[in-house]
TrEMBL record:
Family named by the database record: Belongs to the IPP transferase family.
Quaternary state and interactors: Monomer.
Region (Interaction with substrate tRNA): 39-42
Name of the molecule in the record: tRNA dimethylallyltransferase
Originating species: Candidatus Collierbacteria bacterium RIFOXYD1_FULL_40_9
GO biological process, alphabetically ordered: tRNA modification
HAMAP family: IPP_trans
Top-level taxonomic group: Bacteria
Positions bound to substrate: T15, S16, T17, G18, K19, S20
Catalytic activity field: adenosine(37) in tRNA + dimethylallyl diphosphate = N(6)-dimethylallyladenosine(37) in tRNA + diphosphate
Length: 296
């Protein structure tokens, strides 16, 4: 019989709103506790500084943190794979209170709902072909096979090659199958027994700007440049998904001499702010979230 907890607490919100500290405080009052990080870029082991992974060397007794630093930089990890990973982990820690934390909204949604498209498999030959196309060509390809889907994409997705490729992949799959793709439930999961409680954290724009700027500078001080240099040496193929990580792309430009350190800080900060805005737009559409303001 598959194990399924009675309650899972999800702590979400835009970047730099204090989600990690908040969830650790919650976990301390609910020991033993398992915290599953759901930030997709924190999965990668080679960028702990740039991605802001937590220091697990001094975790409070009774708290276990998973979901960070377990993936090689040339590996891909789909939402479907994360869903399975999540339920496998909570099965391993059956006596623990379960918390999920992060800002990757679709990953969090995948553990609380069955999203139809996440079980559509990757098409490697198609991806290899699409990876050689320009952004404009990818946009035209999606328009050709599913104009309705293209028109539903937001501005960020329209200019994101990785998301365009996935949209083309899904559209191609659906076009090739006569019967509509039917969602499959995660094998490790028993939905009926689980209650999900969503907690959202937010800050004022002024506070967010200040905190993100300070965090970017701190990560540079901690060795973000050296970290990305190591990544470039170990994995020179800059088409890998890890190179689209906010911070990695900007530090790469700095290493190449394309921008100054001041420009690095400004560009990285602006990208984080833009990302936070996109996150908030997505989270605001989730009515199940109870919001807490983390200061003005």
């Amino acid at each position: 019989m598959n194990y399924s907890p009675k309650q899972i607490t999800i702590v979400c919100g835009p970047t730099s709103t204090g989600k990690s500290d908040f969830v650790f405080d919650l976990a301390k009052s609910s020991l033993p506790a398992l915290i599953v990080s759901s930030d997709s870029r924190q999965f990668y082991k080679d960028i702990p500084i740039v991605s802001g992974q937590d220091n697990t060397s001094n975790l409070p007794e009774g708290i276990t943190l998973v979901g960070q630093g377990f993936l090689k930089s040339d590996e891909e990890f789909s939402i479907s794979q994360f869903q399975k990973y999540f339920y496998q982990k909570i099965k391993e820690f059956q006596s623990h209170h379960i918390f999920a934390v992060g800002g990757s909204g679709l990953y969090l949604k995948a553990i609380s709902q069955n999203l139809e498209t996440i079980t559509i498999p990757q098409n490697r030959p198609l991806r290899d072909k699409l990876n050689n196309l320009s952004l404009a060509s990818l946009q035209e390809e999606l328009k050709k096979i599913n104009l309705e889907k293209f028109n539903l994409l937001n501005n960020s997705d329209i200019h994101n090659p990785r998301r365009l490729i996935r949209a083309i992949e899904i559209a191609t799959y659906n076009n090739r199958h006569s019967s509509k793709h039917q969602p499959r439930h995660c094998e490790e999961r028993s939905d009926a027994a689980i209650q999900f409680h969503w907690i959202g954290l937010k800050k004022s724009k002024e506070k967010l700007v200040k905190d993100i700027s300070e965090r970017v500078k701190k990560r540079i001080e901690l060795g973000a440049v050296e970290e990305v240099k190591g990544l470039l040496n170990k994995y020179p193929n800059q088409k890998l998904p890890i190179y689209s990580t906010i911070g990695v792309n900007h530090v790469t430009q700095f290493i190449k001499g394309s921008i100054t350190e001041e420009e690095l800080v400004n560009l990285w900060t602006q990208s984080e702010l833009s990302y936070a805005k996109r996150q908030m737009v997505w989270f605001k559409k989730q009515p199940q979230i109870v919001w807490y303001d983390k200061g003005i």
